[in-house]
Write a structure and sequence with these properties.
The structure is a homodimer of 350-residue chains. Chain A has helices at 4-10, 18-25, 29-36, 44-57, 63-70, 86-102, 115-125, 145-152, 176-189, 205-220, 237-248, 265-274, 308-324; strands at 75-80, 105-110, 132-135, 157-160, 170-174, 195-199, 230-232, 256-259, 284-288, 302-305, 334-337, 340-342. With 350 residues, chain A is of the alpha/beta class. In chain A, helix 2 packs across helix 4, helix 6 packs parallel to helix 13 (308-324) and helix 7 packs parallel to helix 8. Chain A is elongated and about 85 Å long. Chain A binds a DNA duplex (16 and 16 nucleotides) through helix 3 and helix 5.
Chain lengths: 350, 350
DNA sequence: CTGAAAGCGCTAACAA
DNA sequence: TTGTTAGCGCTTTCAG
C-alpha cells in the first residue's frame, strides 16, 4: 500500500482512472463523474477544467465499470449466418450507421448456418453482455428455446430477414411471398413452363414464403407443380453445384430457375456452362441477390434485390426505440420493406 | 433495504447474480466463483451441484464485472474501411473463426474510409474496451497519432492488409509489390503497351507497393511510364465511374487496366460497355479481387486473389499470441501471405 | 455547486 | 476444500 502512490505516478498515462484524475484536479470523484455524465449541477468552469485535464492525461472512462453500475452496456449484438454475402454485409452497414450515430458498439457473431453455434452464442447473451440483439436465424433453426430464453431475460431482440415464426418479437422483413410470386410470374411470362425453385432451407420462413409465392404463380399460369423442381440446397458449395447440375442434366430439366439466395448464382452459371446450356435460351435464371456485379455477369442477371441497407437500418432503429421507451412493445413491430425485380438478360425471351 | 429480499425473489430469474446463487446453494460467493473459473480447489461434487443449480436458475456470470476485476475483456476490435467488400468480409470470417475458438468476442467498426471516423473509433479504445485491435487503415490515413496513442496505452494491435508504415507493430499483408509486378507483366505479355493503374489512395502502402511493382514491370518491358495512366480513385461510385470513362474516352486510351481494388470492377465493365469497347480486344482488365463471381462475368475476370480468410486468421492468431505471452514482440511479426494470379478471359490475347 | 460513501457483480488474497 | 473480505472503476443518492 505504501508504494501504491509511486506506482500510480509511474503508470499514470497507462492506467488512469477517475480517482487519479480527481486527485490531480483537487476535486471529488463524484464531481468528475458528473462532468462526464453531462450533469447540469456542475459549473461551466469546473466542467471545462475537468475535460481539459482529462484530455491532457489521456483519460477515458472505463465503459465496463459504468455499465456495471448503470446496467447498460451500450453494446448490441448482431447474429447472422454469414458475412460474406452481400445481403448481410449491406445490412451490417445499415446497422453500424445507426449504432455509430447512437454511440453504441456492435458485436458480431457468425453462426455459419449452424444451429448449435447459434445456441452457444445466444446462451452467452444471458450474461448481460449486450443491451439488445439483432438476429437472422440459421437455416437449421427449428427449435426456438434458446431464443425464448434470451427474451425471457428481457433482452430486446429484433429479427431481420430471417425470422423465427414462433417467437413473438419485432420483425423486419421484405415481401418474400410477393417476390416469389413476381419472380415466377416473370419467368412464366417469358415462356417458362417448367420452373425450378432452389430453396435454402425447408424450415426457414423466408424460403418457404418465397416458395408459396412461387406456387401461387404456378397455379395462376396453370403450370403443374412438380416435386423434382424443388431443390433443397445446403451449406456446401460443391454439394450445391452437384445438385444443380443434376437438376439440369436430365430430360425433364427446367427451363427456368429461381434461386432463393445469392450464393446459388455462381454454381448455376457454371453448371450451365459445363452442360453447354445457354442462359437464357435453354434456361432462364433469376436470383434473390444484392450482388453489385449482377449487371456485368454473362449474361447479366435478373434479380430480386432486397433493400438490405434499409433493413439493417430499420432493425437497428426499432431496437434503439425499445431502449428509449421501456413501454415499447417490440412484438407489435412488423415492418415489411419491399424488394425490387430488376430484369436483365438472364431472363430474356429468345 | 427491508424489501430488497422480496424484490430479489420476484425477479430472480431475471437478475441472478453470484451472491443469489451462492445463497441458494448455501455456499460462499468465492466458492461459486471458483467453480466458474475452473479452479482445482473445488470438489467434483460441489462443482457439479453449482453448475446444475446455475443451469436451473439460468445464471451466467456477468462478463463486465469479471473484466473489471480481472482487467481482461475477452473482446477484440476489428477496424476496417468497409464490410461490403469480399476481401474484408472473408477476412472477418477468418478473424471470427479464431475468436470464437478462443472464446473471444468481436466488436466491429467501419471507418467508411474516413480518417475522422477512424480517429473517433480509436479514441474510444483508450477506455479499455478491448484487449486488442485488428486494423486496416482508411484510405485517408496519413497521420498516425491516433494509432500511436492506442499503442502507447499498451493495447496490442495488428495491422492486416492496409498497414500504417510509421507505426511499429505486427503486420499481416500480402505480396503487394510482386503482385503489381505480376499483373503488369501479364498484361505486357498479352500485348498491352499502354497500361493504366487505378489506385485507391496515394497514401496507402498497399496501393503504392502495387504501383511500384507496376512501374518495375513497365521498365522491364520498356514501356514508358505516363502520368495520365495513374488514376487516383476516390470513395464515390459515380466519381470513379466518370474517372474511368474519362480515361477510356480518349485517343490515348489504355489497352490494359489494373484495378487496385475490387470495387472498380463494375465501373470498368460498364464504362467499356457504354463506350462500346470490347474486353479483352480493346482493353484488357485485371483486378485485385476476391469476388466469387469473377469467373461468371462477361467476360470472366482475370484477378489477383488475396488469401483473405487466411490473412484474417493470421492476424487474429498473432494478436492472441501476444495475449498469451506478455513478452511477445508484436513489432517483430511481419507475415506476408502470397496472392494468386488467376488468368481468365478479360486478359485473353486476341 | 461539490463531496462522502455505498454498492454494481465479480475475483483473488488470505484465513480457516 | 471452503469462506471472508477488500477492492476493480464507476455512478448515484444524500448531505453539505
Amino acid at each position: 500500500m505504501r508504494n501504491r502512490f509511486r506506482k500510480n505516478i509511474i503508470v499514470e498515462m497507462k492506467n488512469m482512472n477517475i480517482r487519479q484524475l480527481a486527485k490531480e484536479l483537487g476535486l471529488s470523484v463524484s464531481t468528475v463523474s458528473k462532468v462526464f455524465n453531462k450533469s447540469h449541477e456542475i459549473s461551466e468552469e469546473t466542467k471545462k477544467r475537468v475535460l481539459e485535464t482529462a484530455e491532457k492525461m489521456n483519460y477515458t472512462p472505463n465503459p465496463y465499470a459504468s455499465s456495471l453500475r448503470g446496467r447498460k452496456t451500450k453494446t448490441i449484438a448482431v447474429v447472422i449466418p454469414e458475412v460474406a454475402d452481400s445481403f448481410f454485409s449491406l445490412a451490417i452497414n445499415g446497422i453500424e450507421a445507426i449504432a455509430q450515430d447512437k454511440g453504441y458498439h456492435v458485436l458480431i457473431y457468425l453462426t455459419h448456418e449452424s444451429f448449435q453455434k447459434e445456441q452457444a452464442i445466444l446462451k452467452d447473451f444471458q450474461s448481460g453482455r449486450v443491451d439488445g440483439i439483432l438476429m437472422s436465424v440459421s437455416r437449421e433453426t427449428i427449435y426456438s428455446d434458446h431464443i425464448k430464453a434470451v427474451i425471457a431475460k428481457e433482452i430486446p431482440m429484433v429479427f431481420f430477414d430471417r425470422i423465427c415464426e414462433d417467437v413473438q418479437t419485432a420483425r423486419i422483413t421484405t415481401n418474400d411471398f410477393e417476390c416469389g410470386y413476381l419472380a415466377t410470374k416473370h419467368l412464366a411470362e417469358k415462356g417458362c413452363r417448367n420452373i425450378a425453385y432452389l430453396s435454402i432451407s425447408s424450415s426457414l420462413a423466408i424460403s418457404n414464403n418465397r416458395m408459396k409465392g412461387y406456387k401461387k404463380a404456378l397455379l395462376e399460369f396453370k403450370i403443374p407443380f412438380e416435386d423434382r423442381n424443388i431443390v433443397d440446397c445446403d451449406n456446401d458449395y460443391n454439394d450445391n453445384y452437384k445438385a444443380i447440375k443434376n437438376l439440369l442434366n436430365n430430360n425433364m430439366r427446367p427451363d427456368g430457375i429461381i434461386a432463393c439466395v445469392e450464393k446459388f448464382t455462381t454454381p448455376i452459371y457454371l453448371a450451365c456452362r459445363d452442360l453447354n446450356l445457354s442462359i437464357p435460351r435453354d434456361v432462364k435464371v433469376i436470383s434473390f441477390s444484392n450482388l453489385e456485379p449482377a449487371t456485368i455477369l454473362n449474361p447479366s442477371l435478373t434479380t430480386i434485390t432486397q433493400p438490405a441497407f434499409e433493413i439493417g437500418k430499420a432493425a437497428a432503429t426499432v431496437l434503439f426505440k425499445s431502449f428509449e421507451k421501456k413501454s415499447f412493445r417490440l412484438e407489435l413491430e412488423n415492418i415489411v420493406l419491399p424488394s425490387t425485380l430488376l430484369v436483365r438478360d438472364s431472363t430474356l425471351k429468345v
